[in-house]
Amino acid sequence: MKSNITILGGGLSGRLTALMLARQGFSVSLHDKATRAGEESAAFVAAAMLAPMAEAVDATPQVLSLGYQSIDIWKNIIPTLPEKVMMQFSGSLIVWHPQDKDLSTRFAQYLRHGHQGKETWINWNQDDINQNEPQLTNRFAHGFYLPTEGQLDNRQTLNALASGLEAAGVDCHWQSSPNLESLIGKDAWVIDCRGFGAKQDWNQTQKSQLRGIRGEVARVFAPEITLNRPVRLLHPRYPLYIAPKENHIFVIGATQIESEDNSEVSVRSSLELMSSLYALHPAFGEARILEFLTQLRPTLNHHDPEIRLHRQKKVMSINGLFRHGFMIAPAVCEAAVRMLNQEINGENPQKDSITGLPLNIVE
Question: How far apart are CA 184 and CA 195, in angstroms?
């Protein structure tokens, strides 16, 4: 009989880890302070773009590698879930207005640097953009097409994962928030996947420190607009991303603020977000705002994800996915599960053989 495992935190990482373990035959229970919909997790707010090419602008090499590996994992996981999830791999498009041409040159330099000098994108001219994104006809003279990128519907994914957990026999406790210490010793292993909610426990050591970075996102309904792929608009003050979901719903984000204030979106941020959206296409001026939401992304000082292990307490922690949750979570969670299996088998792993992620020992 395989070990009993308790997962603390039922956001994206918690659900993926629980599902992977349950499908390997472990007896798994999961606790999360929110409801089954996961509305208190960063994943509930996210655009769910799978964009390691574009993130080469400022992501670490480790994050980019995890992003590419995760795309294949998502393609394997999503078809096995009991509910439909929008998953699209039509690439993404980077555009800019003529006055921001210098930003495109800099963006291309970052892309080359992040991909070891290779040009991993395709230059589109106005005709290419007109043909592939008809609603942007004659609005942009040039663009970068990133062909391997994709996206998911974040909320459909969370719901489908919850159904997958139930089908796999995971004992799910929604609106349950036991503290970490109360779970130690009751089951063979505890895996802490609380993200920013784990800050107090995570920061007890002198190792990497966890903080929250505030992000602000809008969801709008724009029945007059159809986009075939996520679009990013380069802008000197607030670069915008817009991820089209089903039924003419769009998830829009631009802000990234060094703050742990999780209160409502400010007037200034909402004006900047909506102004940049209007700059992409004036028809968005008639869109209906469904939600303005904030989230705190769990971030470590090195900007890489981290897996920790406290052998004496039999506690593993997964954290630091920053703004890359959907992009890297599958590879990070698979690495954690592999190393946990090795630990249970007495192999004392030092790092994951596939991702290269180290296992950081805390005593």
Answer: 18
Q: Are 177 and 47 contained in the same domain? A: yes
Q: Residue-wise over 299-320: b if at least 16 C-beta within 10 A, else e?
A: bbeebbbbbbbbeebbbbbbbb
CATH number for the domain including 125? 3.30.9.10
Residue 87 resides in a domain: no
Residue 308 DSSP SS3: strand
Residue 251 shares a structural domain with residue 139:
yes
Query: Which CATH number do you get for residue 52?
Result: 3.50.50.60
Number of domains in the chain: 2
Owning domain of residue 225: 92-147+212-300
Q: Among 217, 216, 205, which residue's Cα sits nearest to residue 300? A: 205
Q: Is 354 helix (H, G, I), strand (E, B) or coil?
A: coil
- Euclidean distance between CA atoms 47 and 49, whole angstroms: 6
Q: Per-residue confidence of the chain (363 residues) as pLDDT tens digits?
A: 577 999 999 999 999 999 999 999 999 999 999 999 999 999 999 999 999 999 988 899 999 999 999 999 999 999 999 999 999 999 999 999 999 999 999 999 988 887 777 778 999 999 999 999 999 999 999 999 999 999 999 999 999 999 999 999 999 999 999 999 999 987 689 999 999 999 999 999 888 999 999 989 999 999 999 999 999 999 887 778 999 999 999 999 976 788 899 999 988 889 888 988 898 999 999 999 999 999 999 999 999 999 999 999 999 999 999 999 999 999 999 999 999 999 999 999 999 999 999 999 997
What tokens appear for 195 in the block?
A: 């993200």
SS3 assignment, position 182 = helix
Judgement on whether residues 48 and 162 belong to the same structural domain of the protein: yes
How far is C-alpha 116 from the chain's CA centre?
Answer: 24
